[in-house]
User: What shape does this take?
Amino acid sequence: MKQLIRILLLSILLLSCSKKVKYIDKEAKINIVPLPKSINLIDPGKHILLSKKIKVFINFKDNKNLYDLISNDFKKLSYSNSFELVTNKNMSNLSLEIDKELNDEEYEISIHNKIIIKGGSLNALKMARSTLLQLSVNDKGRMTFPILTIKDNPDAGYRGLLIDLARKWHSAETIYKLIDLASFYKVNYLQFHLTDDQLFTFPSENFPKLQTTDNHYTKEELSSFVNYAYQRGVIIIPEIDVPGHSMQFVKKYPEIFSTTSPEKKHEDLFGGKLEFTNVLNIGKEDVYTSLEKLFVEVMDTFHTSPYFHLGADEANLKIIVDDPYVKNFMKKNKLGNDIHELYRYFIVRMNNFFKSKGKQMFIWEGFSRNGKIEIPKDIIVFEFESLYNLPNHLVEDGYKLVNTSWMPLYIVRSGNSDPNVLPLKWGPEKIYDWNMWKWENWWHKSSAYKNPIQLNRNKNVIGAQMCSWEQTDESEIPSIRKRLPPFMERIWNFDKKDGLDEFLKKVNKTDIILSKIIKDNRQDSLLVGFNITNDGKGNPIIEVLDN
Assistant: This one.
C-alpha cells in the first residue's frame, strides 16, 4: 500500500512539473562550433521556454563548481532566469549526469520537456555546457532551446592553444578572457610560454632574480589561472624554454648558467645580434640541479597539468661548443666531439627527471633524425618548422606529434610596420582548408616551403595546437577569436561538415555569445598577413594579402 502511495505521489509530481513546460513557435537555427557529430531536430518549429527559476540537478557530490560555472555563464547572457541547485532529479528542468557507458570526452544532450545532459566524465559535461550556451536563444529575457538531441565527441584528443607571455606581458584580465575563449570552443590544453630572452614571468623562490620586474605573475595569480581554467575543462601547461631562448637565466645568474665568457657577443640561429648569450651552459652539473629545483616549483604551481613543456628549440649550440666546462663534461660522459650529442643528452636527462615526477615531457621540434644518443619515444614532439626533423620521419620513427604547423596555425607579431618583423597570420578560410596531417611553411629553408607535407591519417599525430606569438595584450583577443573556431572545427571533425560560407555564418553567431561571456567585442581585421616568396638568392619577396 505504501509503495502504491509513493508511486501515486510521484505521478502527481511529474504531472505537475510537466504542466509548467511551455513551448513557443520559433525556427531552430543551430549555430554550434565545433559542429556536433549528430544533431536530431525533433520539432524544428518549436523551442522549449524554460521557467523563470531553472532547477539544476547534478548527479555527483562535488557539484558546486559545475553548478556555479553554468549559472554564472548564463547570467552573463542577460537572461532573467534564476538558478537553484536541487537534489531531486525529478524536480529539475536541467540535469547533468556522468554516464560511465559513454567515452571520456563523449556527451549527449536531450531537450524536450526538460534538458538532460550526460557525459562520460566531468570534462565532457563542461564541454556540453559550451554547446548549451551556443544553443540558447533569448526570448524577452527568458531562456529558450530548440527541441533536439545531440551526440558528440572530438576526433582529436589534444586540442591546444599557446599564449606567449614571455615576449609581450599580458594582464590577468586578458588571461581570464583567453581561458573563457578556449573553453567556449572546447580547447582542452592552454600552453603558457612563460620564459624567453625578453621576459621571465614565473616567480621563483629558489631563483628570485629571474623574474622580470613589473612583468611577472605572482604564484597566487598563476594558481588562480590554473584553477579558473580547470573549472572550465582546460588544463594549463607550463613551458620553461631551455636550453635556448634562455638569456634571462644567463643575465641574472651567470655564475650558474653562463659560459666562461658571457660578455662575448653572439648571433642567434637566424643571424640576429644578441645582447647576451642566450644558451644555457649545459656542460655544468649545476645547471641541471638548478633547473630541477626550478621545475619542481613550476610543477607545484601548475598542479593540474600531467605535462611539462621544455621548449628545447632553436638553441645555437655554437655559442657553448668551445666552453671548457662543455668539453670536460662531454669527455666525462663519453659524448664524443659532436656538440649535438650534448644537446641530446640534455633532453634525455630532463625527460628522466620529469618521468621521476610523474610528468610527461613536451618539446618543440629541435633534434635531428641522426644522432648516437636516442631520443626517447615517450617524448611528445610539437612539430612546427619542418626543418630540424620532418613530421613524416618522426611518425616513421615512432614519435607522437602535435601539429603546430607554422602556416596557418601561427598568429605572429600583430601591428608591427617594421619589414624585418613581419605580422604573419592567416585568415579563417586558410585555416579551414588545413587538416591535422598537413604542414606548411612560408620560410624558404623549410622542407614544407613550396610543397606542403601531407601525411596520411596516423594515430601518432595526437592533435594540434594554434600558437599566438608576440601578440600585445591589446591585440590578443581580437587576433584569436575568429581564427580559433576554424582550427577547432578541423580537429574536432576530421571530415568537413559544412562549406566555408555556412561555417563562417555559424562563427559570427557564436561570436556574439562569446562577446557577452568575456565582455569584449573587439574584432581583428582578419588581415591574412603576407605571402612570402624567394627571389632565388635567399631574399624574400613580400606580398601583402588581405581578405
About this structure: The longest strand covers residues 38-49.
